[in-house]
Amino acid sequence: MSTTIGDYMARDGWRQRVNGALMGVMSCEAFNAGCLAALSDPKLQQCSAESLGAAFLKCASLGLMPGPQQLVSLIPRRNEITVMLGWRGIATLFNRLPHVAQVSAVLVHVDDPLKIDPFLHEPHPFDREVTSPDNCRGGYLRIEYTDGRTRHHFVSIRKILENKKAAGNSSVWRTYFAPMALKTIYRDAWARAAVSFEPGAAQAQHIVNAELHERIVNDENPARVSAPRQVKSPAAAALTYDKPST
Q1: DSSP string of 157-192?
Q2: How far apart are the first and last CA of the chain?
Q3: CA 85 → CA 5, 203, 230, distances in Å?
Q4: Distance from the CA of 43 to the CA of which of 29, 53, 140, 195 falls in 20 to 30 A?
């Protein structure tokens, strides 16, 4: 009889491995519930317990659970499952930082009025949606801190296109330009240390893990990315930078 994913997750050592990866951001019970909810996808139900277990542990290393929240997606490919990190997942990791009240990434349409200093962005509420590099001017991350401060980290369209190029012949970028561009904004803010963090904390470690995971999944080749200026985190080695944060 083949092993079910329920049997796999009931094995000795599963709880210890999951809790070690989650580092206290949620309970093993809550994580397991999210994993089982993700199995509503019929394609995942056809995957082996071993491949599902490996994918769930990868999610745990990111501090995120799969499921309807769309923080991460599980994509069956041949005999393996690819864990695809969504921009909502990265936003969740940033929002867990204890001194951050809220972060939100915004793409700027080429026709949107935008000023950097003083900051002003007037997006159109209906008919100016960014859908491709042709109508994207760039974007920014709005960072609201618990002490009332607000900062903006700006990312140009050049930087977004460099990350797209670094991913090679990626169908994900071609099909989902806007979500991938939003992910680029979050990743660049992390690489530039636009959001401060406590080294070694669980929240920061999960963001580092997410950055490294993104490079592997997207087959990013640092040789295809122009050389960065001085970096502020080990996760920044293959990224390039455009404008300072304000």
Answers
A1: HHHHHHHHHHT-S-HHHHH-HHHHHHHHHHHHHHHT
A2: 60
A3: 22, 16, 27
A4: 29
Residue corresponding to tokens 């803010």: 189
d(Cα 33, Cα 18) in Å, to the nearest integer?
13
Structure-block tokens of residue 21: 């990866």
Q: Note the pLDDT tens digit of each residue in 25-54.
A: 999 999 999 999 998 888 898 899 999 999
Place of tokens 């990626």: 170
Six token digits for residue 66? 């799969």
Specify the pLDDT at position 190: 82
Token pair of 171 as six digits: 């169908």
23: Cα separation from own chain's centroid: 18
What mean pLDDT is reported for the chain?
A: 83
Other beta carbons less than 10 A from residue 76's beta carbon: 17
Nearest C-alpha neighbor of 188 from the set 52, 58, 56, 87: 87
